[in-house]
Amino acid sequence: MGEIAALLARMCGKRVYMDTNVFIYFLEQSEGYYEIVAPIIEACEAGKFMGYTGDVAVAETMIQPYRQDNLSLVANFKAFFATENFLSIQSHDAAIFDFAAQLRAKRGMKLIDALHYATALKAGCSFFLSNDAGIKSDAIMEVIAINTLLKN
């Protein structure tokens, strides 16, 4: 847990984009991953950093509850994302889709990963939390892979 505390300290006061898998691990209390992402979500809720995500992350998170036809879970997930002063949920406009296509073409990212990354860049995020191997750090944004936090 020392590495998570160090990460939270580095993210303090910064803009942090959270990919879909962060929310799925938290909301579904995924074994092994929940313990990693819960302190991150709690720090975001406490205002220690500014949390960002995109409409597409919300939609991706909702797939399983809809697949299960679990309307109670759908309502709970929607309430989570609607929590005041928690997350800034970014829309994906034509310019973001165009930028995502450029990232897909130039960096070989999956389009969905490129869409998340483009959205994070537009929001001015310094950190990107994910578990998708296709998203890599660059000079603008540090990508934190959840799996690297599991190993420590």
Number of distinct helices: 8
Helix content: 55-70%
Overall geometry comes to: globular
Spatial ordering of strands, largest sheet = 3-2-1-4-5
CATH topology of the domain at 2-89 and 126-132 and 142-150: Rossmann fold
- End-to-end span in angstroms? 8 Å
The radius of gyration is 15 Å
Percent in strands: 5-15%
Low-confidence stretches: none
CATH architecture of the domain at 2-89 and 126-132 and 142-150: 3-Layer(aba) Sandwich
How would you state the average pLDDT, rounded?
94
Largest sheet: 5 strands, parallel
The SSE order reads: HEHHEHHEHHEEH
Number of strands: 5
Characterization of this structure:
- The chain is an alpha/beta fold.
- It has a domain at 2-89 and 126-132 and 142-150: 3-Layer(aba) Sandwich (Rossmann fold), CATH 3.40.50.
- The chain contains 8 helices and 5 strands.
- The chain has helices at residues 2-11, 20-27, 34-45, 55-67, 71-81, 94-107, 111-122, 146-150; strands spanning 15-18, 50-54, 87-90, 127-130, 142-145.
- The protein has a 5-stranded parallel beta sheet.
- Helix 2 packs across helix 4 and helix 4 runs antiparallel to helix 5.
- The protein is globular and about 40 Å long.
